[in-house]
Amino acid sequence: MRPQRCLILQPGAIGDCILTLLLAKFLKDSLNLSEIRIVGHSEYLSIFPGRTCVDKITSIESVDLHRLFADKNAFQLEDKDPLIRFFEDYDWIITFLGEPGSDFEQNLIFTVFSSHSAEIITLDLKPPEAFQAHLSDFYIQQLTSQSSLITKDLQIRSDDSLIKATKTDISEGKKLLKYLNINPSQKLVVIHPGSGSPRKCWHLDNFLAVAEKLIAKGAEVIFLLGPAEMEKFSKTAIKNIHKTAKCLTNLSLTDVLRILSCAEVFIGNDSGITHLSAGLGIRTIAVFGLSNCIVYRPVGPNVTVLKSDSAAFFKKPLLHLQKQIFNILTGQSRYKQ
Asked: What is each CA distance from 317 to 44, 135, 223, 308, 321, in whole angstroms?
């Protein structure tokens, strides 16, 4: 049998893409696939090839997928249409775009079958509210219920590192640290206090308090601030971060990965960067507020999730969570004076 290839249409942000890696690994191992390609936003996917089970990526902006949302009765294809050529090499097509029975799904099936037969499976991106297992389980359950060709008994370990930093990543990460006058051999704690939703963000004073205590215990602490944090945080808040610890702003996702590859510990909210840290196998402490940590828990071999249902989660300091984090980290001998 010729090697089979799979295409995944994933339009989500960085956290969604990383949580899709368990699905991709399940597909690759279950079907013995020779290649997995993901179509999505390249700014989130660029770190995947060479570090994950994903072999190739394609920018979603480079493919006319919007055509597939047309009314199925009005949808047309020309001979040698670019859409036909794009899908013609894939035996499995998994899409998070469209819905089962939608015009998108029907047009996708028509396009693919214009050149060859293939397995086409549409997955829901978000589970129902009553679902109480991990998101990857939801994806795999949908897969196995729609295809008898996929091995249902295959177990994928969720405690493996889904993302492998390269030697170049570690080398470049050390260079970035030296630029900040940080000795790469020091025990480094990276804190990312942001998230896509303000309601997912533990109040900044909590992160500052934890950082101050860790610095007093001899840890080196760096804050990471992306464009979203630079826009949402007040000038006073950013000034307080710089007063507390060193700070890196507006790094590319690749450089964030490289900094994390040199870190001992990462602390963050329910965010894409927290999922990246967990996927790299870094000791990750994820602080969850009202979002469901059962469904959206970061996947990795060394993850601790702290959960607060308090309405004050994003409004004011929560001393009990601060103490939990500090005790977790100072309980490790490398952070003791």
From this structure: 31, 30, 18, 12, 9
Measure the CA dihedral 131/133/135/140, to 10°: -100
Indicate the length of the chain as a whole number: 337
Q: pLDDT tens digits for 205-219?
A: 999 999 999 999 889
Average pLDDT over residues 103-120: 96
Banded pLDDT at 138 (limits 50, 70, 90): very high
- Is pLDDT above 70 for 147? yes
The position carrying tokens 């989130």 is 44
- Going along the chain from its start, the domains and CATH numbers come out as 5-146 (3.40.50), 167-335 (3.40.50.2000)
* pLDDT value of position 181: 87
- CB 121, CB 91: distance < 8 Å: no
Using CA atoms, how far apart are residues 105 and 288, in angstroms rounded to an integer?
35
Which residues are CB-neighbours of 49 under 8 A, at least 6 positions away? 55, 56, 57
Rg (CA), the chain: 22
